[in-house]
Specification:
Chain lengths: 113, 114
């Protein structure tokens, strides 16, 4: 069964610092990978997705992620954190279609002034 | 262009009752998926509807059922509610059953079972 592991349920960074949120997936078949952001009391918004094109994927709000098959990882980064980046971030994987995704448990990002 | 809408936003039920949640997909989308998000966890796939039929289903009991209407809107029904059914229920829509289509999520319905 496909699974997604997000290392670190809580990550805290200072404003302006690098953001690194980790995601590893389990699969022998290259999946489609997604990062979503969820603000309090809201649904999920897609940040970026990997669909077997370029391994470095750029998303919205300055985020990017790199697909590393050898490490089965898809870590999310942003060079400089903003206060508005504070939210819950979810990594997800799918193999059949975008509608049936398996999500990680999420990482709460806190940005300190 | 209206995004995905869900109703109601909040709901309180008691154990054993039945509940119906509603979802209108983003304009032009024909596929609707439902997810359950328990507190502190990631969303879990319940099922997906396309062309008014359930196409895929996650690991949820038969108490969870759904429907898709000709206008692509969808309902999620849960019978014999349990305390553990308390969660945020998210609807997501996409265009056709292809792997690369982006899902758009609604704001969710927060269900509390007492």
């Amino acid at each position: 069964a496909q699974s997604v592991t997000q290392l670190g349920s809580h990550v805290s960074v200072s404003e302006g610092a690098l953001v690194l949120l980790r995601c590893n997936y389990s699969s022998s078949v290259p999946p489609y990978l997604f990062w979503y952001v969820q603000y309090p009391n809201q649904g999920l918004q897609l940040l970026l997705k990997y669909t077997s094109a370029a391994t470095l994927v750029k998303g919205i709000n300055g985020f990017e992620a790199e697909f590393k098959k050898s490490e089965t990882s898809f870590h999310l980064t942003k060079p400089s954190a903003h206060m508005s980046d504070a939210a819950e971030y979810f990594c997800a994987v799918s193999y059949t279609n975008a509608g049936k995704s398996t999500f990680g448990d999420g990482t709460t990002l806190t940005v300190k002034p | 262009d209206a995004g995905v809408t869900q109703s109601p936003t909040h709901l309180i039920k008691t154990r054993g009752q039945q509940v119906t949640l509603r979802c209108s997909p983003k304009s032009g989308h024909d596929t609707v998926s439902w997810y359950q998000q328990a507190l502190g966890q990631g969303p879990q796939f319940i099922f997906q509807y396309y062309e008014e039929e359930e196409r895929q289903r996650g690991n949820f009991p038969d108490r969870f059922s759904g429907h898709q209407f000709p206008n692509y809107s969808s309902e999620l029904n849960v019978n014999a509610l349990l305390l553990g059914d308390s969660a945020l229920y998210l609807c997501a829509s996409s265009l056709a059953i292809t792997q690369q289509e982006t899902q758009y999520f609604g704001p969710g319905t927060r269900l509390l079972v007492l």
